[in-house]
């Protein structure tokens, strides 16, 4: 068990795409699952219980491990350990066993991939503040692991009371990351710009010879199983592909207007300006300018739908039309708020104190972000010299009321690679 957990912990992120979670959005999950089936069948590994679960990069990690690390792991494992590749993949995607007699394996799965505190989260919660420089509570990892305890009578891994302050610091640090880093207006903006620029280039590639300009991106070159596992594509490879239309093309007639606008934003850092810069500013803006509660709630639903951006595109284009700007100069970007106690209504991670299992909220007071912020928010970006006009037109469009979807003539565009 320990050897399998060690392998899963070491290799659980080998399937990340160029640009990490941003690039992961361009993985075709069905194609990855097909490749998993092929490699698992060749090694006689059961896969039907894990390959329909997990994030795209987790599935890609499973594929990479079985395809490229199988022989390495088998040849280098200590003789006293067996290798269970199905269990390793279950740990990575978080696919628990349904049988009660597999509870011990389920504990190992929770240690690596759970809804609350696990080794994956502990990794980025420590690393990200170090890399970004934000000030967060210190996390005493040694004390945390000394406080881990296995309770066979409960079939649970718990934290003993001496490490409760470490757990609190982990929760506070995670919330700080979402508030100060993940929801930072520049981070949200640049993620969005890269994502939609990549999508734009994929759609241009789909047009083939019918494309009027030459800027394009071939999805399989960067987001296929072969690209990740065989050619080992990196952030630099993708950035080079995106940048060549900015540096190497002198005839602007050969690249689209959108590419010209977006590449200057990305590579010259000519960022658009947000109407507000944080979640507090967002809340104050809406309550000041959108005073009708029903209009405000409806706006949140329509602007924050992560799967359907037809309303955000509609509002952005209405603003562009009013202030005479081009496509790519006004963006509306949704952002979910994932504070700890908004995500986890009931904790699966327990504090063991005086012979009882307690949730940390029972022992220490917690910040109630859910009372301050809704589960989702959004940013509005526009040109700095026209930002007041953007604000005026945004408020005007919202107050005039948003039409039903059938009245909006902006059909969804999805690259063939993702269909």
Which descriptors would you attach to this protein?
419 residues, alpha+beta, 4-stranded mixed beta sheet, 7 strands, 7% strand
Describe the 3D structure:
With 419 residues, the protein is of the alpha+beta class. It has helices at residues 2-11, 20-24, 29-43, 56-76, 85-93, 103-112, 119-132, 141-146, 164-182, 185-207, 220-223, 225-229, 235-247, 257-267, 279-289, 293-303, 310-323, 340-343, 360-363, 387-400; strands spanning 148-151, 156-160, 273-274, 331-336, 350-353, 356-358, 376-382. The strands form two sheets. It has a four-stranded mixed β-sheet. A three-stranded antiparallel β-sheet has the order 3-7-4, with helices on both faces. A hairpin with a 2-residue loop joins strand 5 and strand 6. The longest helix has 23 residues, at 185-207. The chain is globular, with a radius of gyration of 24 Å. The protein starts with a helix and ends in a 19-residue tail after the last helix.
Strand content: 5-15%
What percent of residues adopt helix (DSSP H or I)? Answer: 40-55%
Radius of gyration: 24 Å
Q: How many DSSP H or I helices?
A: 20
Strand order of the largest sheet: 1-2-5-6
**Given the C-alpha coordinates, what overall shape results?**
globular
**Low-pLDDT segments:** none
Please identify the structural class as seen in this structure: alpha+beta
Taking all residues together, what is the mean pLDDT? 91
State the separation between the terminal residues, measured CA to CA.
Answer: 39 Å
Main sheet characteristics? 4 strands, mixed
SSE order? HHHHHHHHEEHHHHHHEHHHEHEEHEH
Work out the number of β strands.
7
